[in-house]
Design goal:
Blueprint lengths: L4 E5 L8 E5 L60 H4 L8 E2 L5 E2 L2 H12 L3 H8 L20 E7 L2 E6 L5 E3 L2 H6 L6 E4 L11 E4 L14 E4 L15 H9 L5 H12 L2 H6 L4 H4 L5 E2 L2 H18 L26 E4 L12 E3 L10 E3 L2 E4 L3 H4 L2 E2 L2 E2 H7 L23 H32 L3 E2 L1 H6 L7 H4 L14
Helix pairs in contact: 6-9, 9-12
Amino acid sequence: MLLWEFLSWRPDGDRPASVLLRNPRGEARPDASDQGEVRVPRPTLPPDDSAGTTSRAPRELPAPRTAPRTAPRPPQWRSLPTVDDLLPWHQPGVAARRAWMYAPEARTLRRRWQQLVSAPPRQQDLLLRTDKSPPRPGTAGGPAASPAVRPVLYRAFDRRYLLAEELCLDRPRPHLWQVCGPRQIFVVEQHTRPVTTGPGLLFSALVPDADCFDGQGGRVLPLYRDPEGGVPNLTPGLLPYLAARLGTPVSPGDLVAYLAAVVAHPGYSAAFRDRLAVSGVRVPLTRDPRLWREAVALGREVVRHHTFGQRSPDPAAADPPGLFRLPVSERPQVAVAVPGSPTAFPNRIRHDCDTGAGGRRLYVGGGVIAPVRPEVWRYDVGGMRVVHNWFAARRRTPRGGGTSPLDGIRPDRWSPRRTEELVTLLTVLTCLVRLAPRQADLLSRIRSAPLVTVADLTAAGVLPVPEGARRPPPLGGQLELPLD
């Protein structure tokens, strides 16, 4: 394809500017910057042949209004570092053998376990494993009398409990359990298929499930390699490089907050929709100190909401109990209590916007919660509707399971605790919906400003990532020194 450059100058103040078309074929063209800004060379003005006139220095004047303008292009996708360029150790989440090993309440799992313990040994073996999996080594002793029950992030914004017994787990992921601590923040990425809607990353204080992101795979990138938060899971040399570039100290929490602000919102997947299918999530890392500080402050709020107030990227900040500060007009509240009788156990959830009504009410069986924004009701992660998916596991006839008699052991009525958990979920999503426009605006400004590229990190010796940084930490409580 033949390309032309439009150059213009005004030889004197009395004559209109001339526009020249130059074919750059065969000539060296200026390289576009990392941010896609086209650099047009300053033209050399023809000499002034007027008698007695002193030659003037060339000057660059604006082109006529009719001259075309080239809009800045977005940054080259592959010039941006990937998430695992920054947090190198990653692995899939935990996986259980059957659906009945998860439940919204710990009490339900203990009831199922007691049913399992009282079953004959042959039936126990059938209940514990799938039809295709052989018995696990070292499990001949049978189930323990009292099971280990641990909270996990089962799906996006859906916290459940898991029977964490060795007998129950198909993929135990001991490294993830070992590094789980009061400062740990797990970053969850969907890298096995394109993410075209919703946030590009999730953040969790709990060990995530293998299909946590949207029910179809994903991987976990812990922020720290130890439970105390003393050994960050960051590429060696990354923090010193960023600190030198930005002229300000950069902590592991600052980096994860930056990721949350820039990537964890629907505007990210919308901006990079055509590119996310290529190589997973990539991060526009700003070189602008002002934009960096703005992103870190905003990202701290995002991480707190993703973790339901359990984590803050700032180790010096306390987690206040009144974390979700919403105006009264935006605060989801119970308008009509969900009936607690077995006959009124809700099996359907709907919103005013489903029928075209202009209200902001969410109907849970015979109960009503309001106000609930339509954007909250439709909030999705990778196409998975969060509120709808949360309710589907807690309605009268839950979705999924049904392959084992133990699936039938579940509550027979809707409890006030479930209503409280639903209101908390709606509050979290409302906070994120309110933050999303600020995040999208920030991302737009970051993409238009200078960025740290893969080439920059490679030239500084930060990339490629050393193989040792990608290995999991040693098991058994062995001391590990920081890699940086």
